[in-house]
Amino acid sequence: MKKVFQIILTTTMVLLNAQNSANRFFYEMTYKPNKDSAKLEKEMMVLDIDQDKSFYQSYENIQIDSITNVIIKEASNTGFPDFKRMGNRRTQFMHQIAKSYPIHEVLYKDRIGMDYYSYRENPSLIWKISEEKQKIGIYNTQKATTDFGGRKWIAWFTTEIPFQDGPYKFYGLPGLIVKIGDEAGNYSWELKGNRKTDHIAEASAVEGLMKQTGLFASKEITKEKFTEKYDQHKKDPLAGIRQMMGQIPSDVKISDDFSLSKEMRDAEKQMKEHIAKNNNSIELAVTNK
């Protein structure tokens, strides 16, 4: 009886919170950046849910966006943005995923080079729910499996949180996904906590700032075109910057000891090394993270 009351209370509180604000679920993602290495990395991701939609992204991305907002507001007074305040903050995962309820498709957005692109898809997840159950943290969960993105996934969901949603593109089980990972141990997410947030912050200050310059793109394309653009980016990661630099007058001089061509070569080398070290995509059929 006590357990039943706890489930009813949890469900009621979640639903009430969803009506007035958003619920932010924190997932620790463990992943293998390089498919040829056993080294694992971790990053905190968040899934914001309200009564109409959900929004998934890196928590570091939210922090970066918050700092950028402050910098932009201060720049309106000083006339110059102080990006040194950003420090060394960065995320390996710039992508954002939106799902509208009831979920029929997902909207995936990511940055390729300096431009932002998005595409829509219906992952068509076919779940096989087993009778196997497990206690994960404070939640009673049940096992389910599916094939997606060229990998086999094992998920554990709880009906104690009444959202048929989960991290990344995963959804469609009779409750929130508490834990999910692929069989080979390349990627996994585990729910670590949750709290209320005032609203779902979908707009990106960074993207908005880049769009204001008029030099960068932000548009919706097909998934096939997205993959094509990402493959091109891997081969020539500085193509967009070279195009932008071409608009700078040739007689502009920065300093006697500055070589633009050398800086570009060094930057291209670093970016290609980074791409080579981070070659293990979540979806094997798609070459982006």
- Helix/strand/pairing category: alpha+beta
| Strand and helix order | HEEEHEEEEEEEEHEHHH
Number of H- or I-type helical stretches: 6
Average predicted local confidence, pLDDT: 82
Oligomer: single chain
Distance between the termini: 45 Å
How can the largest sheet be summarized? Answer: 12 strands, mixed
Number of strands: 12
Parts with pLDDT < 50 across at least 5 consecutive residues: 1-19
> Quick one: overall form?
globular
Which percent bin holds the helix content? 25-40%
Strand line-up of the largest beta sheet: 7-8-9-10-11-1-2-3-4-5-6-12
- Radius of gyration, in angstroms, nearest whole number: 21 Å
How do you describe this structure in short?
This protein has 289 residues and is α+β, with helices and mostly antiparallel strands.
Description:
The chain is an alpha+beta fold and 289 residues long. 30% of the residues lie in helices and 32% in strands. It has six helices and twelve strands. A twelve-stranded mixed sheet has the order 7-8-9-10-11-1-2-3-4-5-6-12. Strand 5 and strand 6 form a beta hairpin. The radius of gyration is 21 Å and the shape is globular. The N terminus is likely disordered.
